[in-house]
Amino acid sequence: MLQLADSHARQQALTPNQSFIVQAPAGSGKTTLLTQRFLCLLTYVQQPEEILAITFTKKAAHEMQTRVRAALEFGTLPKPEEPQQSVLWQLAQEALAQDAKFNWQLLNNPNRLQIKTIDSLCHSLTKFLPLLAKFGAEPQTNPTPEPLYQQAVEALFEELKEKTPWQTYLKTLLLHLDNNLQKAATLLIDMLAKRDHWLPLIIHHQTEEELRNELEQGLQAINNECLQRVEKELQQVNVKSELFTLINFAANYNSELACWLNLSNFPTTTVENKVAWLTIAELLITKDCVNWRTTVTKAQGFPAAKTIKDKDEALCCKAMKEQMLTLLTSLHNKHSLFTALIDLKNTPSIRYTDSQWQILYALLRLLPVLCAYLRLVFRKTGEVDFTEMMLASLLALGSETEPTDLALSLDYKIKHLLVDEFQDTSLSQLRLLEKLTAHWQQEDGRSLFLVGDPMQSIYRFRNAEVSLFLQCKQQGINQLQLNPLTLTTNFRSEPRLVEWFNTVFAKVFPKQNNPTLGAISYTASTTLKAEQTCKITYELALTDRLAEANYIVELIKKLQAENPLQSIAILVQARGQLAEILPTLNQTKIKYQGIELATLSEQSHIQDLLALTKAIHNLADRTAWLAILRAPWCGLTLADLLAISQTNSKQIIWQRLHEEDLLTHLPETSRKRLAFFKRMMTAALASKFRKPLANIVKETWEDLGGKALFAEAHKQQDCQIYLQYLANQELAGDLQDLIQFEAELNCLYAEPLKEESIRLFIMTIHKAKGLEYDIVIIPSLEYVPKNPKQQLMVWAELPQQQQIHTLLAPLKASNENKHDSIYQYLSLRETQCEAEERKRLFYVAVTRAKSQLYLLACEQERAPATNSFLYYLQTIYPLSSKPALSKPVIEPILTKEKQLVRLSLEQLQQQASARPIIHGHNQVSVEELIWQPAKENLLGSFIHRLLQQIAKESLERWNNAYLQQQQKIWQTSLLQLGIHQKDIEACIETVYQAIHNILHDEMGRWILSSHPQAYSELALSTTLHGKVKQFYIDRVIIDQHKQLWLIDFKTTFINNHYPENLISLLLSQEKNTYREQLLQYQKIVQQYFGQTPRYGLYFTSLPTWLECTEN
After folding, report:
1. 1077 contact partners, CB below 8 Å, separation of at least 6
2. What gap in Å lies between CA 1095 and CA 1078, rounded to an integer?
3. How many angstroms separate the Cα of 562 from the Cα of each of 555, 556, 698?
4. What is d(CA 334, CA 352) in angstroms, rounded to the nearest whole number?
5. H or E element: which one contains 614?
6. How much is the mean pLDDT over the chain?
7. Under a CB-based contact definition with an 8 Å cutoff, are residues 420 and 457 in contact?
8. What is the DSSP letter of 542?
């Protein structure tokens, strides 16, 4: 058997009482090593729960759990002959012996193996200590938290109406952004997503002056360090003396160098002399900072001799110019000096301008307030983002000096910690590891095992920081020093591919690690695989993206004909690159499995379902109604839709469908289609608020024939996913927030086509990480990503001489054109970090290949962009544009005009006959059937909304005159809600009477007036039957006597002219009806505020307060 080059490192990694950090490059068997380590540790613990393995994805956790369990089952079999397998078998045997000794029964109870994702670990921590984590009820993690961020920002903007300590800072921000509220909101939302990075940097206790001085010291330290680097590089190339002479000469002809005239030697490397040092960079480097100068002119201080009248002076000018050119020539290979000079030119100012400081200080005071508002939103909704879950976990563990009981319990319980994919750790995740191991000591029997590959760190957009891998490798974690190990054997790829990886990436990656810029040097690999069908093919001169797509199709046909069993992957940098590839594959009937290529909301069958949902949800949504009329289950033509919609642009479509004159504008077939549609939708709308919305949508979709339209299993699965999502999101038979519903829907992906025979896979490079394929095709090497969005504030922590300096810079004002060197400096650092990650992304892409690699690009008029994959290749060695395999002649694939897909009239008739007539529908008018159930609910919601508005504003404003003015606004709002035109007058009167009653009732005015604490539509969450449920309390008050009140408004109509005994009877019935609901409200309010409330019902139609508090 051949000896592995890294066999000693692999063996050492199984030492149970030592801590390691392992660099495991692509294909090096990282998961196998983790499995072996886990098995090894099982033989040294008394309980399996003493070992905790952490991964970053559910997929990775499942794979590791499966691997460990499979290894244990493998240990029950006879000893294998293959040496590599025998190592795993032996470890499994020893683990099973320990299992038998302590009666763990792991094979029957594998859940005792603690293998978790980082998110599930955080969730479990906050679950154990919800009150300490400040959540109250157990929160739900929302994977699409942007609507929650939006709510926090809107709450902050409300402060513009109130006099608060931070109102001035908010006004400063808006003035800075030219009072563009939308821009301000977008920038603040983006900031909230990254708050775990900047929040620890801006929490301070200094005065404003002390804080400014501290931040400016960081700016000066950066400048000093850069000046010292330039001086050091000049000394190493031994040109300081000569350069000083030349600059002094040039200063006589170039006023920008005048500062050198009074110097007898090189200036010191202090920030006071920065201007003089900058002139060196200007003199030696071209203006675009791309190359050394190759010539100098009068502009640089070296005039042509022929322009000088004095002969001696002319000779001197000629000699000095020649000397300068000789010096420049000698510097052309001095890369370190060139880099140092470029960095000097990019250094930030050493001080903030007053205008910069004004906005920066405003942000430093405002952003923590915004975070506080976000926490209030989290508490109200019962939802959090992943960042908050992480921050809460850190809180639940306490501090190093004051650990919580939970931290002490975990410290006692966990003896060994394994972390997979450590190169993708974020700063907050590292803090969690530090807290989990805060009291671990070297050689105390506990161990930390970190595995990852910094060359595969590609998740900066998820706040991953590859520099943390380098930091822990060098410094360890807490008191634990980590033994560094490096794996070098590649078990995946054939020799020629591994050799190609080594050649290319040794030149693409930097020579040395640079943690500040996230730069990672390359680690070469070896392989034990035998050469078989290895092929590396370039096709870099395709005419355009369509030609590239055609080339890929013909290539796949050829490869599948050669070997139909081999796996093929098309890996793209962004989904947009598939715009031509997927349609071309579809038209040629080549089956593929697309991994998260399209969201559910992009699928036509889901768009139809969403339109149906929106139409049932809101009768006034004209777009949704027209969409479902066009959908396959109705299939009206565009001419039909025009006839329906053109008469009145504000008319509700459902009303229009019942007007007799409409039928005269439609052909016979369309009238039949419409009759079928109206019958099914009548039944759907009759069920509204009587059934769950998801049930109504599902039944209506099936009745209309939607299910019959999509026989494909993956489309059926898509629809089931959507309906389940709708069921989870609805509350009380309706959607509370349609915008958030659609935002979260955009993050759900369509089900891929799953057939065992499919061997073609298409995905982004990020999704391919951890996977491998026989053949990999990477198209569009010339592609470059879009420039990142500007941030409201940029930040960095830079280590300088045993001290870490914080750098912060605000976005410059909207109306300011002046260059902001501080913001530019930090943005440039971010750009450099992104550029380094692009190199790693290319490495991840190509290393998925086991035997064949195809690299494709379209012809470019210009040189490839420096951050494109194509640039990486062409700067290493010239590449032939001719492909290695013969290029087939491809006929252009004709695109057929898209036809309207719809059910035939015969199919509609079959659907109609299969749908039983709803009993009683033929005795009730259409309008009564549709509008009556919804009207009461809509009016109730509208009155509640007005009461919330009144409580927020002053009662004095809502006098009789103001009420009369509001009625026009109410009319528009009620029509938009879907109230029928003929009912508008009566509905407005109902609303008016309800508001008038409460405003002229002493108790009503007290309820809506201001109090020490008062809340309208207070959203509270609690856990019921293991699930988080959200409740909206109409009004909660803490009065001046500190008494807590809970008021539930009831808009049920009770005529105040009824006999008194009848009114009492009706109120008693209402009290009994809502008794359980009020008790539930009372319980959650008591839990939230810490005291028992008085509670009851307020009837707006009487008006009457009915207290329901039980003794």
Report:
1. 1048
2. 8
3. 11, 10, 46
4. 34
5. helix 604-617
6. 86
7. no
8. E
**pLDDT for 618-671, tens place per residue?**
888 889 999 999 988 888 889 999 988 887 777 888 888 888 888 888 898 888
Which pairs from 323-330 meet CB under 8 Å and 24+ separation? 323/242, 323/246, 324/246, 324/250, 324/296, 325/294, 325/295, 325/296, 327/239, 327/242, 327/243, 327/246, 328/284, 328/292, 328/293, 328/294, 328/296, 330/237, 330/239
CATH topology of domain 935-1108: Lambda Exonuclease; Chain A (3.90.320)
| Spatial CA neighbour of 722 closest among 602, 628, 591 | 602
Q: Are 685 and 929 in contact (CB under 8 A)?
A: yes
- Residue pLDDT, tens place only, 580-597: 999 899 889 899 998 888
Q: Taking the model in full, what pTM does it have?
A: 0.77
Tokens of 531: 């050469």
Residue with tokens 């969201």: 599
Which pLDDT belongs to residue 862? 82
φ and ψ at 703, to 5 degrees? -65, -35
Cis peptide before 1103 (omega within 30 of 0): yes
Interatomic CA distance for residues 689 and 937, integer angstroms:
8
Q: Write the pLDDT tens digit of every residue in 954-974.
A: 788 898 888 888 888 888 778
Measured between alpha carbons, how far is 929 from 921 in angstroms, rounded to an integer? 8
| Nearest-angstrom CA–CA distance, 145 and 189 | 10
Cβ(23)–Cβ(453) below 8 Å: yes
The two three-digit tokens of residue 545, written as one number = 């993206």
Spatial distance between the Cα atoms of 773 and 567, rounded to a whole number of angstroms: 5
The yes or no reply on domain 600-747 and CATH 1.10.10.410 is: no
Output the pLDDT for position 1060. Answer: 83
Q: What is the DSSP string of 817-872?
A: -S--HHHHHHHHHHHHHHHHHHHHHHHHHHTTEEEEEEEEEE--SSPPPTTSHHHH
Closest CA to 1089 of 1056, 1025, 1042, 1057: 1042
Q: How confident is the model at residue 982 (pLDDT cuts 50, 70, 90)?
A: confident
- Written as six digits, the tokens of 1035 are 């009004």
Q: For residues 28 and 488, what is the distance between their CA atoms, to the nearest angstrom? A: 7
In whole angstroms, what is the distance from residue 226 CA to residue 516 CA? Answer: 14
Residue 930 pLDDT > 70: no
Angle at 969 between CA 965 and CA 971, to 5 degrees: 115
- Tell me the pairing of strands 51-55 and 114-117: parallel
Residue type, 711: A
Q: DSSP assignment, residue 765?
A: H
Query: 6-132+385-491 belongs to which homologous superfamily?
Result: P-loop containing nucleotide triphosphate hydrolases (3.40.50.300)
CA 439, 445, 446, 451 torsion-angle sign: positive
3-state secondary structure 325-337: HHHHHHHCCCHHH
- 571: which strand partners? 763
CA 98 to centroid of chain Cα atoms: 43
Q: In degrees rounded to 5, what are phi and psi of residue 423? A: -65, -15
Give the CA angle between residues 84, 86, 90 to the nearest 5°.
130
3-state SS of 382-446 is: CEECHHHHHHHHHHHCECCCCECHHHHHHHHHCCEEEECCHHHCEHHHHHHHHHHCCCCCCCCCC
Per-residue model confidence (pLDDT) at position 878? 61
CA atoms within 13 A on the CB side of 938: 24
Instruction: Kindly state which CATH superfamily the domain 535-595+758-817+828-875 is placed in.
Output: P-loop containing nucleotide triphosphate hydrolases (3.40.50.300)
Which two three-digit tokens encode residue 426? 């974020």
Tell me the chain's radius of gyration from C-alpha atoms: 35
Strand pairing of 114-117 and 773-778? unpaired
